Amino acid sequence: MNFHWEFSTPEQEGLDGEILNSVDHFLKKKRYRLVNSILIIKNEKLVFERYYNKFNEESKNNIKSIWKSILSVCIGICIDKGYIKSLDEPITNYLEEFNKNIHPYHKLITIRSLLTMTSGIYWNGGIHYHCPMLTQLFNSQNWLQHIADIAVTNVPSSKNQYKEWDVMLLSAIITKASSMSAYDFCNKYLYEPLNISSGVWSASSCGISYTIYGKEENSDLTARDLAKIGLLFLNKGKFNGRQILSEAYINEAITPSSSNRGYGLLWWIFDDYYGGRGFGGQELNVIPDKNMVTVIQATPTSQGKSYESIHQEIIFNA
Description:
- The chain is an alpha+beta fold.
- It is 30% helix and 15% strand.
- The protein has helices at 17-21, 23-30, 66-80, 111-115, 132-138, 143-148, 164-178, 182-191, 223-234, 247-253, 309-313; strands spanning 35-42, 45-51, 61-62, 202-203, 209-210, 220-221, 238-239, 242-243, 268-269, 274-278, 282-287, 292-298.
- 43% of the residues are buried.
- The model has no long low-confidence stretch (mean pLDDT 94).
- It holds the Pfam family Beta-lactamase.
- This is Beta-lactamase.
């Protein structure tokens, strides 16, 4: 299904173009040399698009943990298509490694627990890119069994802790439920309908599709690609006239969880908007009241810079 962008000017869509055009000076003032892309969609029209560091509309940037929000979309599609019955199903229905009575809490972990980062499985993320727990995992023969052997230190669904285990398990569940890799599922039911092109995600020997610490290009998307994900949510699951994801799941995804009022189902929730976040300044924002989607992409470094001030001081004031 072909998709064609509609273009407009900020002024035609009720924005202050002079403020938006001050972004170049703002980036220099803040020394934001690593910002590569800034994109704004208003009223479903592309009204502002700025690139730096030799990037253009076809340049791809690693999305980092925005991939988690995309994985959440895939879970929603799994439910819509009947591959998964409910968010509140125990993961033992899909992952036999968690059905061996290794830990009594395993039977309490649900798909919702993973989506809200409340599995309770012990996690120590290390510093920046150095994560000993992931190194140990990568050296293991069976990632699922390795994660199942880790202690569960909190009652599932009780405490939010941002960690990689939960999204890895979600990826495995998609594979078990649909009989295709999480990447193949995403590509067939999300990326292809949205005309998004992505490299094949890395996969473990036991079949877990994963991108965060895989090859960089495997989760690279253009700013326009990310904007399409935002438009999908802004339009209640429809894209280019086709229902890709149910409105019911979107409502679940952007509802704050009881364990963290700023987090839904792998989507970050703020006062007047919500979105995806990735290490090093990757931002996808959906602003329903303004009928807007915004994207910021940057080259990630070990310092993990954030560029939210671009939104707070420029975009939201336009």
